[in-house]
Amino acid sequence: MYKISSIALFAAAACFAANPLTTDFYSADAAALVYHDSLFIFAGHDEQGPQGNNNEAFVMNDWHVMVTDDMENYHDYGAVLSVKTFKWANASAFAGHCEYRNGKFYWYVAVHHATIKENGSEGFAIGVAVADHPSGPWTDALGHALVTDETQNDVKLNIDPAIFYDGDDIWMYWGSWNAGRRVKLKENMLELASTPEDIKIKDFFEAPWMHKYRGNYYFSYASGYPSTTNYSMASSLNGPWMQKGVINDKLDNSETNHQAIFKYLGHWYFMYHGANSPGGWTYRRSVNIDYLYYDEDANIQKIKRTSTGVDKVNNAPLVEGGYRLTVTHSNMALEDENGIVVQRPMADSAEAQLWVIVKGDSARHYTLKNFATGRYYCPPKALLDTVKTSETACDIRIENASVNKGYYVYGDYDSDFVGDVLNISKDAGMPVITWVRTGTDNQKF
Is residue 368 within 8 Å of 376, Cβ to Cβ? Predict the structure, then answer.
């Protein structure tokens, strides 16, 4: 026998991680790294004084690392890396990006080079720090810069490095002042494996970031100045690129726009900085996180910036056992009705509303077997198709949507397709279909 529980938490109070993530220090240019179910945030540190005519420049000397397991509580490891780590550098701890490979963490950052400065540039160079853990200690991995003004086909402002893995290939993107570059790195993460080449994005200004979704490549970046965040899309990392337009509008009181796009525990997130801390302005920014969603054609939807931020999540695996699954928006139970999954008013005597959850073949994958019919919840991967039950077990991914509002049951995790009660209906007998995740409560169980 299984103990029957309820995982519909529709009546609980809302619980949010407010934006900005911290007001303990001014933060900017953040990058994200998911490692062992934790989200690490690598952020620059603005140290400029209050707004005024005599201090209109970025003052940045070090970088902080923060970590969260629930998107609400953030631990700051402090200023774990500084310009002083690089003996060949003398100023300006600008934007960076950290990635994990070969058992180590590699943090690529932009700093002023102490001696190399050519062609009217500001002398920015890209260095690499290495550590066994994001909290450090961090050391200079090379003892010299990876990219400088002397690098073949560099740009006048070698800033904003971003790393992207494409299979076995390791790419680094960077650039500013309307000029962007990419270069292949060797497996050791410390040497260039090719000559830098133009990224060929017409409205690029700075802040490159690459990610992949549903077989498409997405190149997002700051465009214009003051900047918006735009993106272009291609079926190949080599293009051709289709410009798709603005996803994050200009920011109030901050001229720069710098983003990171990442997936963590079943959610897509958009991280950016604004000037929304007390005393904030262009040179005193703070990191924020809001949700990122796609439409059915895999286009990125416009970012809705909020002061409340994103929901707290629970990353603990589900406990095996018997459950009544209820739809958050309607408080109706999911029922196996003649091989179709529908919502019905909760009834203790309705055994077809009870589901047995058993761990699947990989982490966060499960099977859902109906207690009455013995059939399995088997979502289709095609949008708008009805969720049916099958005599054969279906391995499905389940992720916490919100501590307060339940779980997403994925029809296709890689494509961001989830179970959805069509048209947010509260009518009894309405079937569950597969739809792209929009964050609405009719998709949370």
Answer: yes
- pLDDT tens-digit map of 224-272: 999 999 999 999 999 999 999 999 999 999 999 999 999 999 999 999 9
Residue with token string 């309405």: 430
Q: What is the 3-state secondary structure (H, E, C) of 291-309?
A: ECCECCCCCECCCCCCCCC
pLDDT of residue 55: 87
Q: How far, in Å, are 135, 336, 343, 405 from residue 325 at the CA level?
A: 40, 11, 10, 12
Partners of 341 in the β-ladder: 336
In the chain, what are the domain boundaries? 4-10+315-443, 19-307
Pairwise CA distance, residues 122 & 87, whole Å:
18
Q: pLDDT tens digit string along 274-317?
A: 999 999 999 999 999 999 999 999 999 999 999 999 999 999 99
Contact 191, 183 (CB under 8 A): no
C-alpha distances (whole Å) from 138 to each of 39, 43, 104, 129, 411 are 19, 15, 11, 6, 41
4-10+315-443 with 19-307: one CATH topology? Answer: no
Residue 56 or residue 290, greater confidence: 290
Q: Rounded CA gap, 338 and 216, in Å?
A: 38
| 3-state secondary structure (DSSP) of residue 183 | strand
Question: What is the CATH code for 4-10+315-443?
Answer: 2.80.10.50
**pLDDT per residue over 214-237, tens digit each?**
999 999 999 999 999 999 999 999
**Structural domain 19-307, CATH architecture:** 5 Propeller (2.115)
Tokens of 322: 């018997």
Beta bridge partners of 326: 333
**Exposure on the CB side of residue 137, measured as CA atoms within 13 A:** 3
CA distances from 51 to 27, 32, 119, 208, 250 (A): 16, 29, 32, 28, 19
* Helices (runs of H) and strands (runs of E) counted in the chain: 0, 34
Of the candidates 229, 227, 220, 168, the one whose C-alpha atom is nearest the C-alpha of residue 199 is 220
